[in-house]
Amino acid sequence: MALKLRLARGGTKKRPFYHIVVADARSPRDGRFIEKLGTFNPLLNKDAENRVVLNGERAKHWLEVGAQPTDRVLRFLDNAGLTKRDPRNNPNKGKPGEKATQRAEEKAAKAAAANAPAEDAAAE
Fold it and tell me: How many angstroms separate the CA atoms of 84 and 77, rounded?
């Protein structure tokens, strides 16, 4: 059985609250789970101590058994000092798209064309 450490959503509409659970990977997000390990309240400030509550001892046990954490839960475990999360880097994400690049090139060409006659007149 493939086990996952993941979030199960609770709370009401537009007021999310998550339980950190151990579940079979095939079960639905809010469906059956094996054990509840903690909670996550994204509405609290990032420095609030109640934002993430995690039973580290049980989480460590499930990691040793072979449960795989999701990306978000891996962040929580890394902050708790239970695992090591490699930083991610996607340099292409910050680059503008193809059309934005074309617009920037056209704008630069127009600016260069507008400045060229002015420079010629200033040189005389």
Answer: 8
Sign of the CA dihedral with 54 first, then 82, 57, and 34 last: positive
pLDDT digits (tens, 9 = 90+) for 62-93: 999 999 999 999 999 999 999 998 888 888 88
pTM: 0.70
- Please, what are the domains in the chain? 3-80 (3.30.1320.10)
Own/partner contacts of 18-25, CB < 8 Å, gap of 24 or more, are 18/42, 20/54, 20/59, 20/73, 20/76, 22/62, 22/67, 25/68
